[in-house]
């Protein structure tokens, strides 16, 4: 897929820290319960750390106790891209930034999630940057 923000991997590597690059550009995962935003309650907007695109709002963040920040809905239907992921010996749905293609995490669906959408977007803290309200 062609993305609005399309840079050579060498440029991404130069702009991101090694850990940001590993997660955002190589579909890595930060360890559970270690991310900056796992437990934050600050209100605001979560933007893609790679390109700045608006992805999630804090009013859709909820406590899922999965180890990563969890949201039940992106800011718009065109904010994220969903990709079938068959790595790790299972079928999952990868979540990418629709603007630059960076890996954000995975989305899980089911009635067990206490959300209006029955979805849990498990997002790596290192994939996003919180812009607090009023800043």
List its salient traits.
single chain; about 140 residues; mainly beta; Metal Binding Protein, Guanine Nucleotide Exchange Factor, Chain A; 3-stranded antiparallel β-sheet; peptide-methionine (R)-S-oxide reductase; Met_Sox_Rdtase_MsrB; EC 1.8.4.12; peptide-methionine (R)-S-oxide reductase activity
Task: Please describe what this structure looks like.
The protein has 135 residues and is mainly beta. It has one domain: Metal Binding Protein, Guanine Nucleotide Exchange Factor, Chain A (Beta Complex). It has two helices and nine strands, in the order H-H-E-E-E-E-E-E-E-E-E. The strands form two sheets. It has a six-stranded antiparallel sheet, with no helix packed on it. A three-stranded antiparallel sheet has the order 2-1-9, with no helix packed on it. The longest helix has 7 residues. It is globular, with a radius of gyration of 14 Å. The mean pLDDT is 94.
Question: Into which percent range does the helicity of residues fall?
Answer: 10-25%
- The CATH class assignment is Mainly Beta
Q: Rounded to an integer, what's the Rg over CA atoms?
A: 14 Å
Strand order of the largest sheet: 3-4-8-7-6-5
Any idea what the shape is?
A: globular
Count the helices. How many? 2
Assign the structural class, choosing from mainly alpha, mainly beta, alpha/beta, alpha+beta, or little secondary structure: mainly beta
Mean pLDDT: 94
- When the domains are counted, the total is 1
Low-confidence stretches are: none
In the CATH scheme, what's the topology name?
Metal Binding Protein, Guanine Nucleotide Exchange Factor, Chain A
Main pleated-sheet profile:
6 strands, antiparallel
Task: Bin the strand percentage.
Answer: 25-35%
Reading the helices and strands in chain order gives: HHEEEEEEEEE
Name given to the CATH architecture:
Beta Complex
Q: What is the rounded distance between the termini?
A: 34 Å
**Number of E strands:** 9
CATH superfamily: Peptide methionine sulfoxide reductase
Domain MsrB: 9-133
Pfam families: SelR
GO molecular function: peptide-methionine (R)-S-oxide reductase activity
Keywords: Oxidoreductase
């Amino acid at each position: 897929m062609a993305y609005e923000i399309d840079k050579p991997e060498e440029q991404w590597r130069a702009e991101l820290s090694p850990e940001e690059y590993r997660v955002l550009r190589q579909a890595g995962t930060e360890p559970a319960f270690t991310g900056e935003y796992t437990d934050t309650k600050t209100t605001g907007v979560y933007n893609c750390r790679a390109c700045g695109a608006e992805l999630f709002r804090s009013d859709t963040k909820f406590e899922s106790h999965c180890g990563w920040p969890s949201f039940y809905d992106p800011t718009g239907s065109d904010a994220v891209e969903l990709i079938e992921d068959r790595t790790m010996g299972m079928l999952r749905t990868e979540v990418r930034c629709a603007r630059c293609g960076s890996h954000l995490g995975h989305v899980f669906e089911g009635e067990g999630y206490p959300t209006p959408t029955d979805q849990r977007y498990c997002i790596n803290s290192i994939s996003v940057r919180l812009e607090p309200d009023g800043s």
